[in-house]
Structures are given as C-alpha cells and as structure tokens.
C-alpha cells in the first residue's frame, strides 16, 4: 500500500503561505508604557506605605518589570495619540479642582446663610450631551458629582443626563455647558 503523495505545486505553496501569513503582534508604544509606569509608581508608594530608599528602589524595579512584561497585554496602551490624550486630561484636572473649590465655598455660604431655607431650591436638570465616547460621558458625570451641590442621577445611552442641583447657582454651571466643553477639549472631541 502506497502512502499519500504530495501533489502541491510551487504556486500552491506560495498561495498557501500568503493565506496563512500571521501578522506580527503590535507592540505597545513607549508612551503607553511610560503612562502605565507613571500610574503604577504612586500606587506602589501609597500601598507600600514605606518611603525609605530600599522600598522605593523595589517599587521602581517592580514597576519597570510590570511595564516591560504586561505592556503588551493592555490594548488601550497601543492607541495612537495616547500621550497627547493624557496631557489634555491632565490639563483638565486643575480646572476641575478649581471648580470643586469654588463649589465648596458656595455650599459653605449656603449652609451658613441666615436664609438658607429660601436659597436652597432643589431641582432636577435634564440635558443631552454632545459627547461621543462613553469615557467622556463618564468623566462629565463624575465631574458633576464631584462638584458640591450637584449629583448626576442618571445617564442614558443616548447621552441624556439627569442632574440634581441644590440651588440655581449650582445649576448654572451645568446649564451654561462650560464643564461639557472642557471635557470635550480634554477628550479631543471639540
């Protein structure tokens, strides 16, 4: 009994090689790994609770190893323009912190005002955002909730927000759309 014979021609082998060509996996960018490193270092310092040279050195070594070996496992680190996106978001944070500070002062003023019962006028504000990405909508919702005097009650999949505001002054920040515009710029949607 004769065994199977190979009847493939060189053209068939070449065509098969082209079909079975396995693409090389994309490597995450250096910028993505640096962002991961920048996120891991503070986490290490907070969770270790030790700020001596030995523990900081161990943290640096551990974070470098994790970035080298797991950088390819996180698909978000392969996105183009990741470093610019993080820089835009980092520029948004000081503005948000300032708004939180101003809102805290306003709520403090309302709380100690002699006619606080007259000033407080709770209301639900409804608006539809023009933000496209879910992460941008989440950032807007969290920014609203972090600002004292306002709480995001719900968001629909279409971008319809319902926000509770303690008084009209707190509601004005949402109604003017300034925060939404800042989030648009931070996420490159403007």
Describe this structure in words.
With 190 residues, the protein is mainly α. The protein has two domains: 10-78, no CATH class; 82-186, no CATH class. Helices cover 59% and strands 9% of the residues. It has helices at residues 10-19, 30-48, 53-70, 82-112, 116-119, 134-146, 168-175, 178-186; strands at 123-128, 150-155, 160-165. A three-stranded antiparallel sheet has the order 1-3-2, with helices on one face. The radius of gyration is 26 Å and the shape is flat.
Task: List the topology elements.
Elements: H1 10-19, H2 30-48, H3 53-70, H4 82-112, H5 116-119, E1 123-128, H6 134-146, E2 150-155, E3 160-165, H7 168-175, H8 178-186
Antiparallel strand pairs: 1-3, 2-3
Helix pairs in contact: 2-3, 4-8, 6-8
Q: Averaging pLDDT over every residue, what do you get? A: 85
Beta-strand percent range: 5-15%
Report the C-alpha radius of gyration, rounded: 26 Å
Which structural class fits the helix and strand makeup? mainly alpha
Can you write the helix and strand succession as a string?
Answer: HHHHHEHEEHH
Helix content: 55-70%
Runs with pLDDT <50, length 5+?
none
- Tally of separate helices: 8
Counting copies of identical and different chains, the oligomeric state is single chain
Tell me the domain tally. 2
* Distance between the first and last residues' Cα: 74 Å
Strand adjacency order, main sheet: 1-3-2
* Sheet with the most strands, sense and barrel status: 3 strands, antiparallel
Q: Per the principal axes of the C-alpha atoms, what is the gross shape? A: flat
- Counted beta strands: 3
């Amino acid at each position: 009994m004769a065994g199977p014979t190979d009847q493939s021609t060189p053209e068939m082998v070449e065509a098969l090689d082209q079909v079975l060509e396995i693409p090389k996996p994309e490597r995450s960018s250096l910028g993505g790994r640096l962002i991961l490193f920048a996120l891991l270092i503070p986490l290490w310092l907070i969770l270790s609770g030790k700020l001596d040279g030995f523990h900081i050195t161990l943290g640096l070594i551990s974070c470098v190893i994790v970035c080298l070996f797991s950088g390819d496992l996180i698909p978000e680190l392969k996105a183009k323009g990741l470093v610019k996106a993080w820089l835009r978001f980092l520029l948004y944070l000081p503005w948000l912190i300032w708004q939180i500070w101003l809102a805290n002062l306003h709520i403090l003023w309302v709380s100690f005002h002699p006619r606080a019962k007259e000033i407080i006028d709770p209301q639900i504000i409804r608006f539809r955002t023009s933000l496209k990405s879910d992460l941008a909508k989440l950032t807007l919702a969290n920014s609203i909730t972090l600002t004292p005097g306002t709480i995001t009650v719900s968001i629909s999949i279409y971008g319809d927000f319902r926000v509770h505001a303690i008084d009209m002054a707190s509601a004005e920040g949402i109604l003017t759309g300034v925060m939404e515009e800042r989030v648009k710029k931070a996420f490159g949607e403007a």
